[in-house]
Amino acid sequence: MTGFLIRRAGGAVFVLFALSVVVYAAFYVVPGDVAQIACGPRCSPAQVAQVSAQLKLDDPLYVRYAHFLQALFTGQDFSTGTGVLHCPAPCLGLSYQSDQQVTGLILAKLPATASLVVGASLLWVVLGVGTGLLSVWRRGRPTERILTWITLAGMATPVFVIGLLLIIVLVTALQVLPFPDYVPFTDDPEQWAWNLLLPWVSLALVSAAPYARMTRASMLETLAEDHVRTFRAYGVPERTLVGRHALRGALAPVIALGALDIGSMFGGALLTESLFGIPGVGRELVDAVRTVDLPVVVGLVLVTGFFVVLAGALADVFHALADRRVVLA
Fold first, then answer.
1. pTM for this structure?
2. What is the widest separation between alpha-carbon atoms in the chain?
3. CA distances from 239 to 148, 211, 222, 246 (A)
4. pLDDT tens-digit map of 189-247
5. Structural Rg of the chain based on CA atoms
6. Which domain holds residue 8?
7. Number of domains present in the structure of the chain
8. CA distance 132 to 219
């Protein structure tokens, strides 16, 4: 197991390094003058030249990337109109629009996104696994066909459509839920949960469908294995076979998929955040792209990639714990 963990950790570090190289090069080798973008459209040529010198844009790209990488570990000093600003490690640079530290901007947005992702993931895993379990338990009956149609509809429906329908029905027509107005958990836990309930349900209804189908397929595959058929021949109740043997075998891929989805949602929830007005990472990324705020874009993409890679590594570990054959592979 130790060797397996070392290999996965080494692979994750390599992927993060490769991602940082590609992202930095892709966003800083852009059409137009980066110094002009950073300075603004009303800057004079002398001001643009001054910004270019401050950002060391005349250096080769690999030298600038080396400075960027060094700032992640040791911090960096920036010259501003009011003096020198120290950006402590991990430093992702300064925003072109606000001169604020990118790390601080991202950390301010992460709690809202984390609240959305964690709450929705708990709902969609419970709903998806429960639906898959019920589908297997009622296989061959009308209930199974109805659940199959529902999961197919859930997989085919975009999250913003589900969100709009829920807003129209639950907020506008029935008025049983308020329109989400994000409240930090530290300010009021009850209002935090109440205002996030609608986004949680919207994401869960869409994301639960793959879990339901995966749970159903894995459980049916396990129920068809020889050892389960032997248990059935010896008179083991079907409830025990489904709950103890089939469900246990189905949890390993579900755990792996869940970890990957949670990681990707840290950057992929921008539609939900935009629809419900949640001030999270996704909305910040949209604003940064719209204003061509390159340091913020690069920082957000790298942080999102970090969560995806971390989630992938954790998914491998959880999968290995649930199925020891993965370690031997």
1. 0.82
2. 87
3. 21, 21, 14, 10
4. 999 999 999 999 988 888 888 888 888 888 888 888 887 888 888 888 877 877 777 77
5. 24
6. 2-102
7. 2
8. 8
